[in-house]
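User: I'm writing a short report section on ligand binding and want a predicted complex to refer to. Could you take this sequence and NAP and write out the structure as tokens? A short remark afterwards would be nice.
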Amino acid sequence: MKTTGNTIFITGGTSGIGRALAEAFHDRGNRVIIAGRRQDRLDAITHTRPRMTGLKLDVNDPASLDAVAATVRADFPDLNVLIANAGVSRPEDLTADSWESATAEMIVETNIVGVVRTVAAFLPMLKTQPNATVMATSSALAFVPRTAFPAYCASKAFLHSWLTSLRHQLRNIPVEVLELSPPYVQTELTGAGQATDPRAMPLGAYIADVMQMLDAENHPRGEVLLERDFARRWAERDGRYDDIFAMMNPA
Ligand SMILES: NC(=O)c1ccc[n+]([C@@H]2O[C@H](COP(=O)([O-])OP(=O)(O)OC[C@H]3O[C@@H](n4cnc5c(N)ncnc54)[C@H](OP(=O)(O)O)[C@@H]3O)[C@@H](O)[C@H]2O)c1
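Assistant: Sure. The structure tokens for the complex follow:
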């Protein structure tokens, strides 16, 4: 995708990776529309940024998505980039007597159904544009799971497969499909502790790498993936799956 001259709609734009990506694109002069449930965050982020708009959105609510899509269709008819980035993550102990499926259901609803629903709402608009891109945020954990996050990792594996099919189905339609697969990054995805966890990649450094990869069109097969995650991406092919799985999930 080109990194200037776009009109971009990004879900999960109120914090973390989505917010930082929105700001990076906005710094390059793109028109950016951020979406999320927290109105105070939307207001604070857009307050000092002309050409950035905030729209309240809950991707788990089809009516909310329909309303936002209608607003974007009316107010931003040149929308050419969708970044479906909203997501949630929670650990789950499937061995606990108290374990029940509510957490997994919430993750599936947001990370899977929410993304599919978002793409469905915006794809018709994108298909009318000459330089259109759909990007969705999966995870490097799509390729080898961290077992403490079973539904989360499975939701990202779903997205990896689904985006592969979407890309193939759109091969004769000029809508590029990108999969953003972040490593462990300093955001509040799993709680405040993650934002300062020294094992996680600093957010600014990650976004700088992503913008560099997009600028250079350095995303083979549409996968925007850091080199350090290639081992996980190709673990199965390279016969390293068991070793990497064991490293990530000590017995
Ligand atoms: N940080 C990492 O280590 C990492 C690694 C791999 C992949 N990812 C993925 O990156 C994406 C962004 O996560 P992050 O790390 O930046 O965490 P984050 O700061 O918690 O951001 C999550 C975003 O999703 C939005 N969101 C959650 N549920 C929503 C809903 N029902 N409707 C609309 N928006 C919703 C949140 O906005 P509101 O609360 O305002 O609605 C927030 O802006 C996620 O898909 C995550 O799985 C993150």
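A remark for your report: The helical segments are 16-27, 39-47, 62-75, 102-126, 150-169, 203-215, 230-233, 241-248. The radius of gyration is 18 Å.
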